[in-house]
Amino acid sequence: MTLHATRREMLKWTGLAAGATLLPSVVIADEVPPRKRVLRLAHLTDMHIQPELAAAEGVTACLHLLQSLADGPELILSGGDTIMDSLATPTDRTKLQWELWTSTLKNNCSLRVESCLGNHDIWGWDKKLSGTTGDEPEWGKKWACDVFGIERTFRSFDHAGWHFIVLDSMMPHDETVYTARLDDAQWDWLQNDLAATQPQAPVLVLSHIPILSACVLAGWSEIKPGDITVSHQLMHTDVARLRDLFWKHPNVKLCLSGHLHLRERVEYNGVTYLCNGAVSGGWWKGDHQQTKAGYAVIDLFADGTFEDQYLPYGWQVKV
After folding, report:
1. Where are the domains of the chain?
2. Residue range 111-134: mean pLDDT, rounded
3. CA angle (129, 92, 84) in 5-degree steps
4. What pTM does this model have?
5. How far is CA 177 from CA 1, 89, 111, in A?
6. CA–CA separation, 172 and 183 (whole Å)
7. Contact criterion met (CB below 8 Å) for 270 and 264
8. Helix (H, G, I), strand (E, B), or coil: what is residue 56?
9. Topology of 36-312 in CATH?
10. CA 316 to CA 126: how far, in whole Å?
């Protein structure tokens, strides 16, 4: 069927078309500028270096691999439990482990390394098994601090526009074990540090023990009918007040931890909590549950966002 338009209709349509060309352009969506990556870092945790099970060889392989990446990291955050154990270990064995770590790092790593303490890095809290008295100059956390070249176990620094906070998760519980929390001095320091940080500076928090975790429930806790018990050694017992503090400072974006040897990501109140497995996997005896031995690579962006990936490095058990 043929449609015929009158002259008046043709003029009307022509006028509408002409008018449309005079209207301002309609922007459907603003163009989003590309994010600017300011830093790529590697998070290595729970290396548990020791002479046995080729642990030093495994740490070396991991360090070589991450430094050979085409787009490699510029900074390593070491998440604690650097050595297999000094909590219940005599002097000579502790010295052997720290010397092994120091030489492995010196010979195989050219990157800046910022370390936090793990529970196994603390010397002699179990006095009976370690044969210590508590009066030794290096007793407790002092030995690890000297190895890491730090004055105290908690601190902060600024790098690439981000503010980094390193926490000490381990406080004495009794004569042989620890509990996961901040003491009063560290808590006061943390509040003051966040208050003094520029609100536009995104914040990354590094701790050994997770501040908040989900895999602690499925991977570690004792589960009884109608009840789940979380050990005070597996997750921060002061999580509630840390949660409330972070809520007051929305520039706190990312919390990194280890300790559990499991990989997880928890999003809560605008903060992402990443537990990044373990370089040692299941203490150099294979995978730990469903998590392979590996490390994380994390990209930090100027706008406070980040991207992360967990990279197993293919370590095979050696005896």
Report:
1. 36-312
2. 97
3. 70
4. 0.88
5. 91, 13, 33
6. 10
7. no
8. helix
9. Purple Acid Phosphatase; chain A, domain 2 (3.60.21)
10. 32
Read out DSSP for 209-238? S-SS-SHHHHHTSEEETTEEE--TTTS-TT
Query: Beta strands 252-257 and 170-172: pairing type?
Result: unpaired
Query: What does the CA dihedral 8, 10, 11, 12 come to, rounded to 10 degrees?
Result: 90
> Biggest alpha carbon distance in the chain?
107
Query: What letter does residue 68 receive in the DSSP assignment?
Result: T
Q: Which tokens sit at 199? A: 């609100």
Amino acid at residue number 12:
K
3-class DSSP state of 256: strand
* Six token digits for residue 304: 């406070």
Measured CA to CA, the distance from residue 55 to residue 297 in angstroms comes to 21
Containing H/E element for 143? helix 142-148
| Position 6 pLDDT exceeds 50 | no
Question: 262-287 burial string, b = 16+ CB within 10 Å, else e?
Answer: bbbebeeeebbbbbbbbbbbebbeeb
Interior/surface letters 134-162, b for 16+ CB within 10 angstroms, e for the rest:
eeeebbbbebbbebbebeebbbbeebebb
User: How many Cα atoms occupy the beta-carbon half-sphere of 32 within 13 Å?
Assistant: 5
User: What is each CA distance from 85 to 96, 178, 220, 240, 283, in whole angstroms?
Assistant: 11, 14, 20, 30, 11
Residue 238's CB is within 10 A of a number of other CB atoms, namely: 18
Q: Check if the beta carbon of residue 152 is closer than 8 Å to that of residue 167.
A: no
Structure-token pair, residue 21: 């060309």
pLDDT per residue over 229-273, tens digit each? Answer: 888 999 999 999 999 999 999 999 999 999 999 999 999 999 999
Distance CA 110, CA 74 (A): 9
Of 88, 93, 92, nearest in space to 50 by CA: 93
Is residue 84 within 8 Å of residue 49, measured between CB atoms?
A: yes
**Residue in the structure block whose two tokens are 């589960």:** 223
